[in-house]
């Protein structure tokens, strides 16, 4: 807004100068008006330049100040006015481009749910989401956003999860299904039980991350400043040589006018903000331009195991009903019983049951839970029990299990009915992600985990990771990251849990798998993957590299065009006023090219393998 006001002020003063000279025929007064305004703006730019130099950075404002001073000193005040219009207009154009590039991030904030319909005393009471408590029963009406995270307890429907995952396909939900805040209900009302407070719910976590990323500046402009030093020297050399050879001081002004550094000032930040916007559309929040630059140059990636290479939650991997009971009947009884429980094993069983085409939620009476043992209830006129072997009649004393597996037994009317085995498992997209990162040129890929060596090597082998560091304490993970040689840097660390937060902070780029609300990891990370999909790590690297490529192209296009114009201006064929006009063309070209970083490429959209959907619903 400040840049727009400055731009409008320059236009207004310029109009006054034009009227003064051409309507009232007072060229001296017009020159004074433009000179005073130019001197004030040049002085303010000089003060800002000094502050920049004191902070240890090299800026590109010197050329702009010199071009204003040179044109005013030789009487080319209309050219000076055009330079001022160009500079202030360029700043306004940058603001517009940044706002356009960041519009995808703002959509999240605009659509944040604020009200929940809570069941109380037989009716619905509208409450602020901040007042909703755990285990409250909430009704989500058709077309409304889910206010907080919860579990469906009545009804069924299809939900639009595109704001969370980027997927436009409607996701069916039924009794026992998890609901994420921010997702949008379809055509039927659904009742849910609250499992997370508003502050801990997924959508609010994402909103917080978006605000954090929006508040961080795109530090990539330092790269443009590195170009500024040689560009300034070249510009001054061409200008001074042209003056000496021609003997005309106007030639100095004409060269400096077209040497204005707006492409350097504008192009890089616009490209970075565009890349951050594009990443958000791919379910990745990158918090700063510096992180994009480091991601693009990454040489090493370290991965945590649980929740990163693996899904991070228990899954039913095998069902073993007794011979007198079909698998469908077994799952129907066990699934309906476990819907009533909040236990971690129960959530895994319910997810599995909901994936079965023949499963339907039904009434369970007399439900009770025995702490540390299991659950029981009456379903379809049968007494059902599920839990440990000691809780189930005639359950086998031992069941052959692989490393990391657990078991739940079930009985019907005190007759042993079978068991299910549960375990964490690798993400289906993990092997392809490791392969893609190698193809992208990352030379070192390794697993850092606190798990036992045997378990870690078993998981690593499934995703073709040959370097494994097992039984690591958090400090040992940090040491491995910080002691990586220079040839292996920048280093990426990918994790999801609270214990990964220190390692994420220690890495050059920490990437948190934040889809399941791992807030501690997300807050310490430089980038957060909002979708439960590790292939987004490779997508983030590809996006960063493409963004940096566009940013460099934008800067180089501006430099090349300016250099060509300076050489032409040195011959005297470009008047100062026309040269100032040409700068608007240069600025617009650089900014439009930088906005290409906001565009999606088909190869990025196709990178995630189709198998990922199985992981999301398992």
Structure characteristics:
single chain, 618 residues, 22 strands
Write the layout of secondary structure elements.
Blueprint: H1 2-22, H2 27-54, H3 61-73, H4 77-101, H5 103-110, E1 115-120, E2 123-128, E3 137-140, E4 150-154, E5 157-160, H6 162-165, E6 170-173, E7 178-179, E8 184-185, E9 190-194, H7 202-215, H8 221-246, H9 249-258, H10 262-281, E10 284-286, H11 289-296, E11 300-303, H12 305-309, E12 315-321, H13 327-338, H14 344-354, E13 364-370, E14 374-379, E15 382-387, E16 406-412, E17 415-423, H15 430-439, E18 444-448, H16 453-462, E19 467-469, H17 474-482, E20 491-495, H18 501-506, E21 509-513, H19 519-524, E22 527-529, H20 536-569, H21 576-594, H22 602-605, H23 612-617
Parallel strand pairs: 11-18, 11-20, 18-19, 20-21, 21-22
Antiparallel strand pairs: 1-2, 1-3, 3-9, 4-7, 4-9, 5-6, 5-8, 10-22, 12-17, 13-14, 14-15, 15-16, 16-17
Helix pairs in contact: 1-2, 1-4, 2-3, 2-4, 3-4, 3-9, 4-10, 4-21, 5-7, 8-9, 8-10, 8-20, 9-20, 9-21, 10-20, 10-21, 11-20, 13-14, 15-20, 20-21
